[in-house]
Design a protein that fits this description.
The complex is a heterodimer. Chain A is an alpha/beta fold. Helix content of chain A is 40%, strand content 16%. Chain A folds into 2 domains: 4-225, Vaccinia Virus protein VP39 (Rossmann fold, 3-Layer(aba) Sandwich); 237-279, no CATH class. Helices cover 29% and strands 20% of the residues of chain B. Chain B has helices at residues 3-8, 38-44, 50-59, 77-89, and strands at residues 23-31, 90-98, 105-109, 112-113. The two termini of chain B are 26 Å apart. The chains are: A alpha/beta, B alpha+beta. Chain A binds chain B through residues 49-53, 74, 76, 80, 82, 85-86, 89, 94, 96-101, 104-109, 112, 130, 132, 141, 145, and chain B through 1-2, 4-5, 8-12, 19-20, 34, 37, 39-40, 43-44, 47, 49, 110-117, 119, 122.
């Protein structure tokens, strides 16, 4: 089957038929449970027996939620598809479900959740299902509200199926831009079918988090030690620029071009790149007397 | 929708600052028993907005809750039972949630609150 994201918007794709199919397929159920287990593992909740309140974004028919219940946690789920939520209600899941479009944020008070999981949902944010949808804006809005409704120092683990590398980058940068720290965890990276992406995010700085587990504390310490060690400097972008020779500096300031087209490579370089692309079977613009020439300055 | 969910929800309509607490209008409610878990109740208590919770519980017919946030010595087993009942055992099946600032009405159907916004209500 092709990707469901390309067939229809989520509230239409997950209709009554699809919702029922979803919960009756033992394979789907098994995968969802396994992914939920892994997500909770990555959440790294301290093992003190206290049930936490978790947010499940894109909870659907509550398959992931049921696993959360059996792991001893309370949860609140949101989903855009009413049909999926109705199935969840019929199955009498123990969590609360709310109908909401995650691209509009999260409709919750600030700082109430001890963690967030999401199974196979956030790739839907990369789609524009109508002319008003702007994927980047929807991602920003989602992460912004998610950050707000998480308790400081808690984590969010979002499993998703990206279509391509650009989507991974788009999702990750949107998350980091609103203040989350963290990164991507890839399970089974060498297998095309079993490969799973988990975006693991922490809300708030790790040092201020009081409830962080031992392993994260160790990471934090190592980071501090590195910083204090003599001889290791963390060099930012600005510092690196200062070291450039004056002539380079001027040229980089006057017209900073993109990385793909550095301005000092010349015609030979362009022709080499073109022949490389042709070997790969790609189409290139033909060479002419204008190749590699500087454009006229425009006003 | 249980009162736990209601207490966490906030309206996101364009122009609201807090969007909380949502006024509850109940048409149909249902009760079902769930497992009593004191650890979770004690963990959740500090997260609740007490006045909103108490007002919502009262509108659902639970009037044994203290009017102010319970002190440490008030956390008796008896209190926790009432608290558990109000928080987790009463389901609002049909009704409305009303945004305190904009007056936007969010319907609750079949126990599922519909907080969906129109595109022009998103900021």
């Amino acid at each position: 089957m092709s990707r469901p994201e390309f067939t229809a918007p989520p509230q239409i794709f997950y209709n009554d038929v699809e919702a029922r199919k979803y919960t009756h397929s033992s394979r789907v159920v098994e995968i969802q449970e396994r992914l939920t287990e892994r997500a909770v593992e990555l959440l790294n909740i301290p093992d003190d027996g206290v049930p936490r309140l978790l947010l499940d974004v894109g909870c659907g028919s509550g398959l992931s939620g049921e696993r959360l219940t059996s792991l001893g946690h309370e949860w609140i789920g949101t989903d855009i598809s009413m049909n999926m939520l109705e199935v969840a209600q019929e199955r009498e899941v123990l969590g609360g479900v709310v109908q909401y479009d995650m691209g509009h944020g999260c409709p919750f008070r600030p700082g109430v959740f001890d963690g967030c999981i999401s199974i196979s949902a956030i790739q839907w944010l990369c789609n524009a299902d109508n002319s008003l949808h702007r994927p980047r804006r929807r991602l920003a809005s989602f992460f912004n509200h998610l950050y707000r409704c998480l308790k400081r120092g808690s984590k969010a683990v979002l499993q998703f199926y990206p279509d391509n590398a650009e989507q991974v980058e788009m999702i990750t940068t949107s998350a980091l831009r609103v203040g989350f720290s963290g990164g991507l965890v890839v399970d089974y990276p060498n297998s095309t079918r079993a490969k799973k992406y988990f975006l693991v995010l922490a809300a708030g700085s790790e040092s201020s988090a009081t409830e962080f587990s031992a392993s994260t504390h160790i990471c934090g310490l190592v980071g501090d030690e590195l910083l204090n060690k003599p001889g290791i400097n963390i060099v930012g972008r600005k510092k690196a620029r200062k070291n450039l020779s004056p002539s380079r500096k001027i040229s980089s300031v006057s017209h900073s071009r993109s990385k793909r087209h550095p301005d000092n490579k010349g015609r030979a370089w362009i022709e080499k790149k073109k022949s490389q692309a042709q070997l790969k079977g790609k189409e290139t613009a033909r060479n002419s007397k204008y190749t590699g020439r500087k454009r006229k300055d425009r006003i | 929708m249980r009162l736990l969910t209601h207490n966490l929800l906030a309206s996101n309509v364009k122009g609201t600052t807090a969007g909380f607490p949502l006024k509850l209008e109940v048409l149909v409610k249902e009760e079902r028993s769930t497992e009593f878990d004191a650890a979770f109740l004690l963990h959740t208590l500090p997260k609740l907005n007490w006045s909103a919770f108490r007002a919502a519980a009262e509108s659902l017919g639970v009037d044994k809750l203290p009017s102010t946030y319970p002190e440490r010595d008030e956390l008796t087993n008896e209190f926790l039972r009432v608290f558990h009942h109000a928080l987790l055992e009463i389901e609002v099946q049909e009704g409305y949630l009303i945004c305190p600032e904009t007056g936007r009405r969010f319907p609750v159907r079949k126990g599922i609150p519909n907080m969906m916004l129109n595109e022009d209500e998103v900021d």
